[in-house]
């Protein structure tokens, strides 16, 4: 089982989630794809993902993008599973603080919610000074990401496996190119 964890305000309809689903299907492994549409509240999202991990017949692999990379880091520390982190968010409680009180629009549907202090508190509660079990983490970064500073991730994940690509963007343009590597990790 591979659990894809989407980013902030995203969903299972995201480009990378769909690319992974098609990549697995082309290899006769469509049944391995799991990508829940996560609740807006971070602790609710973690509870949902934790249930999926605990119910999996074998330890799943996690792939997390942006905020999903933060969630995957947290879950990898809790369950000692492997995780590939794609342009992961570092300390998102602080990063998203300027959004307090703002109405957020989901990327792939008409849903909205207000980003509150409770959202920030959830994120801060899950934050780690450094990632646990860094040997279980594969960090994939494109240094053309204008949303998150890739250097923050290289520093934070300094003990983890890292690949840094020139150019690209926050969406990680090379995702299809690294799926074989992620699969073997």
TrEMBL record:
<dbReference type="Pfam" id="PF05728">
    <property type="entry name" value="UPF0227"/>
</dbReference>
<dbReference type="InterPro" id="IPR008886">
    <property type="entry name" value="UPF0227/Esterase_YqiA"/>
</dbReference>
<protein>
    <recommendedName>
        <fullName>Esterase</fullName>
    </recommendedName>
</protein>
<dbReference type="InterPro" id="IPR029058">
    <property type="entry name" value="AB_hydrolase_fold"/>
</dbReference>
């Amino acid at each position: 089982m591979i659990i894809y964890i989407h980013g902030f305000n995203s969903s299972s309809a995201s480009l990378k989630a769909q690319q992974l689903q098609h990549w697995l299907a082309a290899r006769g492994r469509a049944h391995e794809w799991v990508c829940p549409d996560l609740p807006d509240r971070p602790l609710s999202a973690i509870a949902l993902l934790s249930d999926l991990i605990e119910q999996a017949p074998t330890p799943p692999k996690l792939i997390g993008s942006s905020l999903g990379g933060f969630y995957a880091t947290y879950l990898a520390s809790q369950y000692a599973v492997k995780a590939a982190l794609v342009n992961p968010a570092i300390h998102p409680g602080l990063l998203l603080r300027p959004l307090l009180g703002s109405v957020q629009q989901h990327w792939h549907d008409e849903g909205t919610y207000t980003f509150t202090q409770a959202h920030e508190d959830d994120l801060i509660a899950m934050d780690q000074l450094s990632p646990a079990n860094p040997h279980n983490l594969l960090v994939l970064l494109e240094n053309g990401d204008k949303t998150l500073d890739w250097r923050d991730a290289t520093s934070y994940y300094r003990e983890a496996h890292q690949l840094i690509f020139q150019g690209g963007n926050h969406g990680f343009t090379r995702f299809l190119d690294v799926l074989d590597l992620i699969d073997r990790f």
